[in-house]
Amino acid sequence: MRSWTTNTCNGADPRIKVACNGEHEATTRTIINEVQSGAPEADVVVVSSMPDNQKVFKDGRVLAFRDVLFNIVMPNVALVDMTIPWMKMLERKEFSDLSGNNINHPNDFGHRLYAQVICELFRERQPHQTVDAKTSYAPVE
Predict the structure, then answer these.
(1) Residues 59, 87: contact at Cβ < 8 Å?
(2) Exposed (0-12), middle (13-18) or buried (19+): which is 87, by Cβ within 10 Å?
(3) What would the pLDDT profile of 105-135 be if each residue is shown by its tens digit?
(4) What is the 3-state secondary structure (H, E, C) of 115-131?
(5) 14 contact partners, CB below 8 Å, separation of at least 6
(6) Per-residue pLDDT tens digits for 36-63
(7) Angle between helices 61-69 and 14-38 (to 10 degrees)
């Protein structure tokens, strides 16, 4: 398993954020290419992150990273959008109800939300559909 995290791009300088978004896409594509070069038929699942606590990070970096991930959906590469379902949950719950550290890591309930949304990916659907909880965990058409 390989990963890229938002912790890599902590910083207030907007130029860093722009560079990180470009690097985020390039790094994610590199990871996918490494996997698929050894196993061309391998399916890759990319998962966007939960948003940060806006009281700590007000920069919206997770949404920007999520948007970049939509650029890499292609055959054998699926995107599970965790950002929007998390934001929907925050309409009714406090951030601390979902987070283990009240900053940027899920608690048990948050992990269950991840599992629920990721499991939706394995329902029968058309190729190149993303999983998104905006419509009751239904695939985006």
Answers:
(1) no
(2) middle
(3) 899 999 999 999 888 888 766 665 555 433 3
(4) HHHHHHCCCCCCCCCCE
(5) none
(6) 999 998 988 889 888 888 888 776 778 8
(7) 30
Q: Please state, in angstroms and rounded to a whole number, the distance separating the CA atoms of residues 60 and 53.
A: 10
Structure tokens at 81: 């959008």
The CATH architecture one would assign to domain 6-135 is 3-Layer(aba) Sandwich (3.40)
Distance CA 42, CA 76 (A): 7
Residue-range domain boundaries for the chain: 6-135
Helix/strand/coil for 56: coil
Query: Is-contact 42 75, C-beta < 8 A?
Result: no
CB atoms within 10 A of CB 3: 9
Judge whether 37 and 76 are in contact, CB under 8 Å. no
Count of Cβ atoms closer than 10 Å to residue 35 Cβ: 17
Sign of CA dihedral 22, 27, 33, 39: negative
128: left (phi over 0), alpha (psi -120 to 50) or beta: left
> Model's pTM, two decimal places?
0.73
Question: What type of residue is 53?
Answer: N
